[in-house]
Amino acid sequence: MHSHHLLLEEPIRMASILEPSKPSFFPAMTKIVGTLGPKSRSVEIISSCLNAGMSVARFDFSWGDAAFHQETLENLKVAIKRTKKLCAVMLDTIGPELQVLNKTERPISLDAETLVTLTPNQEIEATSNLLPINFSGLSKAVKTGDTIFIGQYLFTGSETTSVWLEVNEVKGEDVVCLVKNSATLSGSLFTLHISQIRIELPTLTDKDKEVISTWGVHNSIDFLSLSYTRHAEDIRHAREHLSKLGDLNQTRIFAKIDNFEGLTHFDEILQEADGIILSRGNLGIDLPPEKVFLFQKAAVYKCNMAGKPVVITRVVDSMTDNLRPTRAEATDVANAVLDGCDAILLGAETLRGLYPVETISIVGRICAESEKVFNQDSFFKNTVKYVGEPMSHMESIASSAVLKFLGLIWVFLSCLYLLLTLSKKTGVSLFS
After folding, report:
1. Binning pLDDT at 50, 70 and 90, where does residue 283 land?
2. Do 326 and 211 reside in the same domain of the chain?
3. Number of compact structural domains in the chain
4. Please, which pLDDT band fits residue 427 given cuts at 50, 70 and 90?
5. Domain check: are 91 and 147 in the same one?
6. The pTM is what?
7. Which tens digits make up the pLDDT trace of 330-389?
8. Which residue ranges does UniProt annotate as crossing the membrane (predicted)?
9. Res 20 pLDDT > 60
10. Would you say residue 338 lies in a domain?
11. Residue 424 has pLDDT above 80, yes or no
12. Residue 162: which CATH number?
């Protein structure tokens, strides 16, 4: 990992911290990706999300059918026309995601120190001691003592809505587990994640290909979020599939890093991908808690130096049910921006959260406040030092253009300041 300074402008006047945040004419430069779902699919809510600062709408195909997402997208189009705000469309693939199926949708209570069996028989009903899953190879992938996590949408770490299991015994295709914490699983679908175990399933599944070829082509998607990217070959395979479709030649592929395998091959994935999404929900399971920040900082820095956008997920989980983020979450968002993160992805907070609009608004305000103290000069010097001399022709032109533009703005503001000062002293209004 490359060492680098925290890109914080100094000094910060303590008095300015106590001043109320001023509404800015320009939105935060850090983009906000909002996942649209049950709580955020009406024209009214989507319009409010756009006005609050959402600039990319994510459609997560881990749940819901194409018709459901199409209806949401049609509402997005109406909201874009109504608000006159631009918004890109991101399709998020299912990938090799393991799921527990709960057809009845009745809440399932699991008690600590009891046994529960995971079975590939999807015909049976989910109960407190028997959970059907969508993968027949689980018994071959795990061994006694392995850790399995289950939670709605993604494992949250919350003791009441997520559960962690320890493999007790493998019986044929069934896996018997010991429940380690009491929890209630509610909803029709739960994600299952095995810590540091490779799942022998393709990254781009047949179902993903079908969705991209139909829904993706029909809606000319701007971004493809490739879930569980594990190798550079996964990106090349996805790009090859897009190129065959013709209409999606301009679609950008973002590699979603979910597990230790993607982490291990990060450098080669970064070379192939158009951008990176750090899926901290799953990464937080594969890595010890004290290691997550190290990977995040290293990955963000590498993306910055490669000139490729990097997106952080799972930032304000508590806002799924609460109107305000915790202090730690607010600081987490700010530090991600100061480290050079380009976008924040909101998942459950907007998909099924109670306050999707407020979440986007608050995250946007934190990003804007962080950008005010971001040390652009230090960042530029670090980048030039990393890239080395001489710069490429295109890089040199772009850099010169930005510096000249900033110089003109500085001259304009200086002149305006002088004129205002003279106006005050002479008592002659500039606009009279």
Report:
1. confident
2. yes
3. 3
4. low
5. no
6. 0.85
7. 999 999 999 999 999 999 899 989 999 999 999 999 999 999 888 888 888 888 888 776
8. 401-420
9. yes
10. yes
11. no
12. 2.40.33.10
State whether 344 and 233 are in the same domain: yes
| CA distances in angstroms from 432 to 208, 420, 427, listed in the order given | 64, 13, 11
The pLDDT value recorded for residue 262 is: 94
Which DSSP helix (H) or strand (E) runs through 289? Answer: helix 289-306
The string of pLDDT tens digits covering residues 321-339 is: 899 999 999 999 999 999 9
CB atoms within 10 A of CB 39: 17
Neighbours of 182 (CB within 10 A): 14
Distance between CA 204 and CA 9 in Å, rounded? 42
Cβ partners under 8 Å of residue 2, min gap 6: 298, 301, 302, 305, 386
Q: How far apart are CA 216 and CA 224, in angstroms?
A: 9
Please identify, among 194, 223, 255, the residue that sits at the C-terminal boundary of a domain: 194
1, pLDDT greater than 60: no
In a shared domain, residues 91 and 103: no
Mean pLDDT over residues 309-325, rounded?
93
Q: Is 5 helix (H, G, I), strand (E, B) or coil?
A: coil
As a whole number of angstroms, the distance between CA 263 and CA 283 comes to 9
Q: Look up residue 239 and give its two tokens.
A: 């790009």
**DSSP β-ladder status, 115-119 and 130-132:** parallel
Same domain, 152 and 64: no
Tokens of 78: 């109406």
How do residues 117-171 score in pLDDT, each as one tens digit?
999 998 899 999 999 998 888 999 899 999 899 886 555 556 577 888 999 999 9
- For 171, the token pair is 């019986």
Q: Are residues 85 and 132 in the same domain?
A: no
Domain span at residue 47 reads 14-95+201-374
- β-pairing, 98-101 vs 183-185, is unpaired
Cα 312 from Cα 62, distance rounded (Å): 19
Q: Report if residue 6 sits inside a domain.
A: no
Closest CA to 178 of 148, 203, 134: 148
**Same domain assignment for residues 89 and 110:** no
Per the domain annotation, does 5 fall within a domain? Answer: no
Residue 7 lies in a domain: no
Distances (CA, A) of 221 to 25, 47, 54, 211, 225: 29, 20, 16, 11, 11
